[in-house]
Amino acid sequence: RDERELARMRGEGPDQAEFMISPNPGEGLGPLSRIASGGELSRVMLALKTILAQSGSVESIIFDEVDSGISGATAEVIGEKLLNLSRFHQILCITHLPQIASKGKTHFLVKKVVSGGRTEATLLELEGEGRVREIARLLAGKEITATAVAHAEEMLG
Fold this sequence. Notes:
This protein is an alpha+beta fold. Helices cover 43% and strands 20% of the residues. It has helices at 3-8, 32-35, 38-52, 72-85, 98-101, 128-140, 146-156; strands spanning 20-21, 30-31, 60-64, 90-94, 107-115, 118-126. The protein has a two-stranded antiparallel sheet. It has a two-stranded parallel ribbon with strand order 3-4. A hairpin with a 2-residue loop joins β5 (107-115) and β6. α6 (128-140) packs across α7 (146-156).
C-alpha cells in the first residue's frame, strides 16, 4: 500500500469505509455495495451480528433472503448460526429452506391468497403436527410423503 492510502486509514483520515468481499472462491475483492446479492448481504449481516452479538444493543434482527442461493449443508450452517444468534437477540427470518426453518423456536406460516382481486396475507403460528407437515412440505414439494414427514420429524428433533 502507498503512504497516501495508509494515511487515509489513520485517525485524521476520512470517516467512511468501504467493505470489500470476494463472495466466491477464485474471484477478486469487490465493493460489497456493488457486487453482493440480497442473500449475500444478509449472510454478511449474519456474520457481523454473530461477531458483535454480546456487545451489540440491537434487540431484534430481521433476515430476508438469507437463504438465497444456498442449500443443503450451507443452509444447515446458516440455521445453526441463526439459532446461536437468537440467544442474544430476537431473530425474525423469512426462509424457504427446511434446514433453516427447522432451527427456529417459533414457526409462522405466511400464506398469500387472492380475494376480490386483492392479495391478502395471513399469518399462522405452527406447532406440533402442523410444523412437522410444513417442514415436510418444504422438503417434498406438492406431495408430502411419509418419508418427508419422517425426515421433518428427524430435523425437528
